[in-house]
Amino acid sequence: NVVLDGGEEVIRLSVAPDQAEQLKTILANLESAGEFGAVQLPPALSDNPQRAGHEWLAWIDQEDEGALVLSNSLPGLVTGRHLAAAYGSEPIFFTIDPGSLPIPVEIPFSRIEAHGDFSKVAVTAVAREGQDPLAGVPIQAGTLGGLLEGKGVVAGASTRYPDHEEAVRQVIVEVNAQVAELPFLVRGVGEDLAAKLNTTLRTWDGRVLVAMGPRGHLRVAYGAKDPTKSRVAMLRLLQTVVDNVSVARSFVSNLPRLTLRRRVATGGGQDVEMFVIGDAAANLPRELRALTDGEGRLNIAMSWAPHAGGGQFVIGPNADKELAAWLEETKDAPSAEQTQGDLLAASFAADPQQLQAVLANFQPGQEPDQAAIMAALLGLDASGPRWGLQARTTEPGHYELVITPPASKPPRARH
């Protein structure tokens, strides 16, 4: 599909041999146009008069392997056979003026262009003036997109929060204010925890990743200026929490049992640590209990790989094994350094039937049941075709998207 100068569109479609005769029969029943076999397509229904009046012609070009060509004029139809020579050898190439599409919704882009092959499609989109869809959205270049290549990831996304330093500052101010109100006898403990939390939070560089999968597991990752220092800070914080809660349990019986297990597994050359919250199932909402193991414990496995650029966490019954596999599967994926220029990264690999269970919670005129949605998301497995997306912006309103479709063999060329 190509939009020529002046806004005229030309679309060339290859026709499967077993569908050629049926297509000819369909076109033969339409009003003819010109003197070489072209026909006029019925007008599209649209609320936009400009789109509704957009004329489309169709023609089967027998001198171009029987390709079906669609255009807005007779000269445009004849142009179809020259598209491949003019726009290169990539099997996928099109440009679109969204304003000319016969659809009842307004698309905020003035031009969309795509090209690629069966393994990757690059899309360039230019927003209409004053209609940038991401204007004001709090995201910034820098992702942990390489981590989305883990085989167990069902759905996930990564970006950078631009105001992370201010967010950290506000958390620290609030924590310090609460510590200042503690009784004198425990204030020292609170100040120690607050200081360690401060050190840990300040290692965050704004990048964040959230993903689901496999069934009953949640994945979270954060970017760090120095993953090694961030690891030390986090483990010191957690060990301090464990020690203080252990002492407090001598006086307060209803506190959970906390443990920090060191080096419970390895993956991709990295150690896996695990923070365990005992009897967590009794205190979690029903929709989150799928994250606990058979004994009601909440297992949080964690690791810090320099290649990943920060900390990785898996929460779920088999958190340690899943994190070890995640580390191994992504050790050769694009590093955090390589994805610094990406604005957004996303991945999706759920089976369509599983997705229906999630979408069933969204009914017109009804408030979505958040608990049911979360339960459905935690029930997803990476059993469907995997789609990937990376997005960049070269300047305000100009976006470059790379879509990675499911791996498949391209169709053989017919001679």
Question: Based on helices, strands and strand pairing, what is the structural class?
Answer: alpha+beta
Number of domains: 2
Mean pLDDT score: 87
**C-alpha-based Rg, rounded:** 28 Å
Biggest beta sheet attributes: 13 strands, antiparallel
Tell me what you see in this structure:
It is a single chain. Helix content is 26%, strand content 28%. The protein has 415 residues and is of the alpha+beta class. Helix 5 runs antiparallel to helix 6 and helix 9 packs antiparallel against helix 10. The chain is elongated and about 95 Å long.
Key traits:
single chain, 415 residues, alpha+beta, 2 domains, 13-stranded antiparallel β-sheet, 19 strands, disordered C terminus
Short description:
The chain has helices at 20-28, 49-52, 74-79, 83-87, 164-180, 184-201, 227-248, 319-329, 352-359, 370-378; strands at residues 2-3, 9-13, 31-33, 38-40, 57-61, 67-71, 92-96, 109-116, 121-127, 155-160, 204-212, 218-224, 258-267, 270-277, 298-305, 310-315, 344-348, 387-395, 398-404. With 415 residues, it is α+β, with helices and mostly antiparallel strands. It folds into two domains: 2-127, no CATH class; 145-350 and 372-384, no CATH class.
Helix and strand topology:
Elements: E1 2-3, E2 9-13, H1 20-28, E3 31-33, E4 38-40, H2 49-52, E5 57-61, E6 67-71, H3 74-79, H4 83-87, E7 92-96, E8 109-116, E9 121-127, E10 155-160, H5 164-180, H6 184-201, E11 204-212, E12 218-224, H7 227-248, E13 258-267, E14 270-277, E15 298-305, E16 310-315, H8 319-329, E17 344-348, H9 352-359, H10 370-378, E18 387-395, E19 398-404
Antiparallel strand pairs: 1-2, 2-6, 3-4, 4-5, 5-6, 7-8, 8-9, 9-19, 10-11, 10-17, 11-12, 12-16, 13-14, 14-15, 15-16, 17-18, 18-19
Helix pairs in contact: 5-6, 6-7, 9-10
